[in-house]
Each structure stands twice: as structure tokens, then as C-alpha cells.
Amino acid sequence: MADARAAGALAARTSGTVRIVGAGLLGSSIGHALSRLGVDVALADASPAQLRLAVDYGAGRREADGDDPALIVVAVPPDVTADVIQRELAAYPNAVVTDTASVKLEPLTALRERGVDLAKYIGSHPLAGRERGGAISARADIFIGRPWVVCRDEETASADLAIVEGLALDLGATPVEMSPDEHDRAVALVSHVPQLVASLLAGRFTGAPDEFLGLAGQGVRDTTRIAASAPELWVQILGANAQPVVDVLDALAVDLASVADALRDPDAPGSRRAVADTIRRGNDGVGRLPGKHGQKRRFEQLVVMVDDTAGQLGRLFGELGELDVNVEDLRLEHSPGAQFGLAEISVVPSAVERAVRGLEARGWKIASTTND
Amino acid sequence: MADARAAGALAARTSGTVRIVGAGLLGSSIGHALSRLGVDVALADASPAQLRLAVDYGAGRREADGDDPALIVVAVPPDVTADVIQRELAAYPNAVVTDTASVKLEPLTALRERGVDLAKYIGSHPLAGRERGGAISARADIFIGRPWVVCRDEETASADLAIVEGLALDLGATPVEMSPDEHDRAVALVSHVPQLVASLLAGRFTGAPDEFLGLAGQGVRDTTRIAASAPELWVQILGANAQPVVDVLDALAVDLASVADALRDPDAPGSRRAVADTIRRGNDGVGRLPGKHGQKRRFEQLVVMVDDTAGQLGRLFGELGELDVNVEDLRLEHSPGAQFGLAEISVVPSAVERAVRGLEARGWKIASTTND
Question: Cβ distance B19 to B69 under 8 Å?
């Protein structure tokens, strides 16, 4: 479907080869998506093993002498991004060069300091990824519906901008124009600091007794899920975006000290208020995050008890289909030791009553219905 | 099924009425579960409206003159827990009194200071809950597979302990004996501080531009999900467990300052190492949290593309049932604007190959398979 929707737009604009340097998760995923669209994808990677994997898995062909790419995508680790961009601009002076690095100001500054002509360079950053990296984890669909930041400047030719934004569109992403500085402050806030906070919180568990951790529930599991991220990449990302990250960390430290001080003397005047304000500000802040379907659309949930046997979910979703109820989202809660789980199903508000009545008539136990 | 598993154990031990004071989420949920087991449940609540709801929804009957409960469960807000325990001990001297408050030392200390005879009181805390409270959100199954902390002491009679632990067992929970102090330090670490951290992080979003928040992905959504919690209850909980919470917050503040200092001078010797150690400690810590199915059991995931039309999930799960593949867990990723979603399905390792082959033979597109 994505294939049909996006077909050919980039191919039409570039009428040629797309060269991808770096066949890891992002590079290979872009390669898969472009290959499906019929674009000639030439892959390069410093690691012969990674390159072989990417080619074997269908992300594109190996680079070849005489390749004349219209677009080059640099998808290498942050610490070598500037070097590779510089090299590619020199080697293919007619190509538009973009990159996928998750920090935008540092490579640009490095390239400017070296006096590199950046007329054909347009930095970009697809906000897509997976918990696991490498060509082997690549997926053509990871960009669909995600923002793809594109950093134009005054020297950017609009035809070149169209090529990079076309790449984003062809892969199902939404191009978002931002300055490198805005981008870096935004990702510090919504990605880099959340990673550090999850890591710091989970780090406090290392010295705790097993019995303490045994009381953990879904809340803390969600809060620390991304603490499982690999250190190597994050050291580079955080190092390359240090100042914006420090700015958010410092503000967070002030907030943390203030609520800790209130709790140091919980009966003092103003202490309850300070704690309540912290929780309330959190309510407001989390309410501003776009949901899976974007900020506006809201669903209602119904929770259905499901036996822990093969086929039960099939029957449930089959019957929802018969009721013409589309499942917008779902979470399966499954307790250790329990012989059944709870399927929390999100549906559009107009479908709630139809779903509940229909399912109950078919013998399902609805544990609850709630608003999002 | 849970009914069959646990049937009658408590009824046998108490051979009488269980009185539940406070018909909110926890009290009503206990009432529902006990009523299903055939136990006579007498409900009391300071709010006539809440009590009416709980009775109407089947959590038990109204309290009556002449009730002679063998067990009393106090399930009221933290700030009135000690008062209600004291009152219940006086009113029903033959009954064992327990409570469900999420802080254990403060009410105990208050009762001791008042010189209350606590021989028949055994504090407890079921680690169960939902994002929404009230009798209307009550569910008999929220205790299944969860820990239920029981705080015995030297004056606790073992017959009385058996009644409280029997309650936990009958509701499908696992009794865990801890001292009040241990309990409070444990929940500070795995529940109260994670709540504050999520709130503080989300609080930083209140002043940010919309475009910044537009770059948010699943990572930050998970990290801040519980920031949506209601302030009223949390102000009480945090106030009642202030010292253990402050201890963890102070340690966290030191860790945070240390990684911020490293990033202030990212090229200094030791800075990369300090950042890497933060991420690595987070890896270790999150690895110690028990998973949904307990720590040991591990699943593999396969990601299947699913059209965004009614009935598609039904077909998928129906066919997984035909293949005799049990779905252990699942997450539906659904991107804004996309016409399909990705169903990430967890299955036992031995079922992965059967699932992938079978689904592909039936025309499903498997986006990837990964290890947990």
C-alpha cells in the first residue's frame, strides 16, 4: 500500500542512482524502501560484512566504479558524519548530499570550519529507528508517518531541497523544516534527555535488593524501557549534542531539587502545593506529546478478558471485524501466573457501544470501558 | 479460571463476613473478587455516592448493624488510613484489620504514638492499580500475579497472618513479607520516584514549542506515560513516604549532576567514559526489573504488517490460532497517516519459525523477527 501510495516520486525527480553510505539500520532501511520503489540503490559501507548483509537482505547493490548518483545519503555514526559528507561532496560534485545523523549543528559547524563548499549539502534527520541496529534489523517501513527534519539554509537550491524532501515523502515520512539549532534543542528535549533520565533512573536499581525490584509494575517498566539502549551510539549522540542536553538537564536538576526540598519538610507551608504542581505540570506536559495517531484524534478503550490459549485473540478480532469495529490500537496485559490476559482495545468513540454490545452478546467479558 | 483456582480458601479460613472500608478502586476490586468467591462482603464508604456505585456494580452489599466481620480491609486514602484503622480496631475487637495503603511506616507510627493496641492489625499493600480510580474502574482481576506485601511483626498471631495472606492468595496475588521500612524504601525506588521522574521530565515539555514536541517518538511517550497520573493521590503518597523518596531523589540528583558535568566538557578525559557508564548502569538496572511474565521467561517478537481495516487483526490472530501459535504479548504500532499498522507479536522461541513460515505461506508480510 505504501508502495502504491508513494510510487515513483523520487525516481521521477532524481532519474538516477541513490548512493547510500553506511548500510546500518537507517541506511539499509532507506535502501530497502527505495529498492521497492524501483530506484537504483548503490550501497557503500566501511565494513565489508555489514555491506554484504545489506546487499544479501535486498537493501540495494554494491557501489560500482562509474556510479553517477543524483542523491547521496550519508547514514554513518555521528563521529564520522562530517568526514564522510566532505568526502562525498568532493567525490560526486553533481550530487545532492544529505545525512541522517541525529545531531545537526556539530557536523555542519565542522564542515564550515574546514571551508567545505556546502551548496549541495542539505542536512536531514529521519525520526525513525528501532531498539536494535544493523542491516539485519532494517525495515522499509520504519519511516512511515514519522517526521523527517530537513535543514535548509539560504544557499539551498529549491530543486535540491525537493530531492531531499521527496526522499522523505517517498518513504512515507513527513518533511519538517527546521534550523540545525532548533533541531538539536528539540531532540535534546524529546529524545536525548529522556534517554538519560531513563538510564539514570534505571541505574538506581543496580544496587537494590531483589525483593525491592520484585515490587516493580508496568509504570516503572515503561519509564525505564529505553534504558536498555546500547551505550556506544548514545555516547556519540550525547557528546555531539552536549550543550542543548546540558541545558535541559540543568533545568531538570533545578526542578528535581525543588521537589526534593519540598519533600524534605513535607508539612511545611507550600510543600504539598509544590508537590502537586510538579505532578500537575507533568500532566500538562505529557498531554502535549503527539499520540500514536497525532495529537488531535482520541480513542476510547475497552478492556476484554482473553483466555491464554491459541486462537482466542483470533476469535476476538474476527468478531470485532464482523461487528465492523476497527481496532485502532491495542495493548495486551498479561499477568505472570494468570491463565488469561486483558486486551485493551482502542476504537473510535462512535464504535464503543457497538463493540461492547456485540462482544457481550458473543459471550466476551468486558472488564471496563474508559476514555483515553 | 482464576475463580476455580482460588475458590473458597479465604471463605474457609474466615467463615464469615469480610468488611471493606473504602469502596474506591482497590476496595471495590477486592469486593468484586471476594464476592465472586462466594464471600459475604460488607462495604462501607464515607461517600454515599461511591458506596451506591460499588454496590450497584456488584462489589458487595452495604454494611449493616450486627455485622461481625472476621477480616476488615481498610482501603481509604493514605491521609485517613491511620484514623480508620484505629476506629475499626475499636469497633470490631475480634476482627483482623488490614489496610491497602501504599505507604506502610507512617500509619503504623501514628497508631503506635496514639497507643493503639495493634495486636490484630497487619498492614498490607497489594501492588495493583489502574490509571483510573473509583468504584467504577474496579476489576476483580487486578491482583492476579501481582505481589501483595504483608507487614507482620513479633506480635502478629500466625492465624491472623494466615487470614491476610489468604486474602492475597485468594485474589491471585503473591504474598511477600517485608518490614514497613523495607516496603517503603522499595516503593520509593520502583514506584514513587519513577512517578516523580516521569512528571519532572514531562514538566519540561510545558514551555516547549509545538514543533519540538512534534519530533517525539515512542521512547519519550513510554518514559512519560505515568506523568498523566492524578495529582491528589500522589501528593498524599509522596508526603507520607517523603524520607525514602528524598533519599532516592538525592542520589539521583548526584548522578544527574555528574553526567551533566561530563557533558559540559564532552572532550575532557573521562567524559565519554562517564556518559557510557551512565548508559551502561541503566542497561544493568533495567535488566533487573521483572518482566511481564517474570524475569526468566523470554519471548521472541515478529512484526507483521496489518492493513488498517476492520477484520485484518482477526484474520491474523485466527490464522495464528490455526498454526497453534499462542500470542504471549503484542503491541500494535500505528503511524499517523499510514494506511496500515505493525503488529509486534511475542511468541515462545520454539514457535517463531512455525509462525513465520505459516504466516508467510498465507500471504502476510513479516517486517522482521527479533530477539527479546
Answer: yes
Q: Residue A37 sits in a domain of what CATH number?
A: 3.40.50.720
Question: What is the nearest CA distance from B77 to chain A, expressed in angstroms?
Answer: 15
For chain B, positions 297-336, list CB contacts with chain A under 8 A. 303, 305, 307-322, 324-336
Cα-based distances in Å from A321 to A47, A114, A359: 47, 60, 11
The stretches of chain A forming alpha helices (DSSP H) are: 2-6, 9-14, 25-36, 48-56, 78-91, 105-113, 158-170, 180-187, 193-203, 210-213, 218-224, 231-240, 242-264, 271-287, 312-322, 352-361
Nearest beta carbon to residue A249 from set B256, B267, B272: B256
Question: Model confidence over A132-151: pLDDT tens digits?
Answer: 677 888 888 889 888 999 99
- Intervals of chain A under pLDDT 50: 1-8, 11-12, 293-297, 335-337, 371-372
pLDDT digit string, tens, across residues B93-113: 999 999 999 999 999 999 999
A161 with A190, same domain: the answer is no
Q: Provide the number of structural domains found in chain A.
A: 3
A168 with A191, same domain? no
CATH of the domain at B263: 1.10.3660.10
Q: Give B319's contacts in chain A (Cβ within 8 Å).
A: 314
- Binding-face residues of A in 118-147 toward B, CB within 8 A: 127, 129, 132, 137, 139, 141, 144-147
Please answer yes or no on whether A289 and B224 come within 8 Å at the CB atom: yes
Domain end call among A163, A178, A193: A178
Question: ipTM surpassing 0.95, yes or no?
Answer: no
Note whether A310 contacts B329, CB cutoff 8 Å.
no
Structure confidence by residue, pLDDT tens digits, A57-96: 899 999 999 999 999 999 999 889 999 999 999 999 999 9
